[in-house]
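Continuing the batch. This is chain 6 of the set; chains 1 through 5 are on the previous pages. Same settings as before, nothing changed between runs. Recording input and output for traceability.
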Amino acid sequence: ELAWEIALAYYSGSDFDKAAVLLADISDSGIDDIFELRAKIYLSKIYISKSMIPLAKKYAMQVLKKLSDAKNKKSYLYALAYMLDYFSSSRDEASILNDKYMEAMDILLRCDLNNNYLNTALHFPAQIFENKKNEKIFSNILEKTERIATEIKNQHLVAAVYNWKAIHDEYNGDINSARKDFDKAEKIRTELGDLEQLLRIKNGISDFNLRIAHIKEAYNVLNDIISQLFMISDYPLIIELLKNQAQAAFFFHDYE
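Output for chain 6:
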């Protein structure tokens, strides 16, 4: 138990390498099935965060097999492992990805794992979003996630829902609704004070304005926050923001 508590402390402090060493020892200890399964869940999460997908999938599948063999599919650990198996599935597995996605959400809800359900629901397969045949399914998922996120007062996920609703609105040509949903997401992000997520949504709003040729709005959105860019460490996001700012400045004739 001491090793478990230390591993969790490392994990909570984002020291994933040290956490992984201890969790691997617990996973292979053969002493306590519950601790072993929980360790494998955390190992899968760590390797997903490191983009080491085969290892993440390996640990998730070990948990699924162990609980399936024990006829214990109602365990919350089975639900978490199923979610992690979905997250570590290849995007090329189009034929089974939709089914995994829908099943993962059902299992998580049955176990009352609402935050995990919401995170899974908002990581949908591309074909759910892009295929017009799935329009009703996608709309229902967004409505359900908004309701649950609001009920449990998870404002971070409420903002994420509005962001996806805006993208969905624009995809369907409803520009006015898209703008309203982007504004709702921005308002929540501003209230939360999460700079990285706020910059992410502002980048989305600027990109949206560029696509509909509202150049002044695109320029102003990013010009207001350009001084804050290097207060975050997400360099791909910084590059994306600078690219959009350069495009907006060019079309706005601000060549300096």
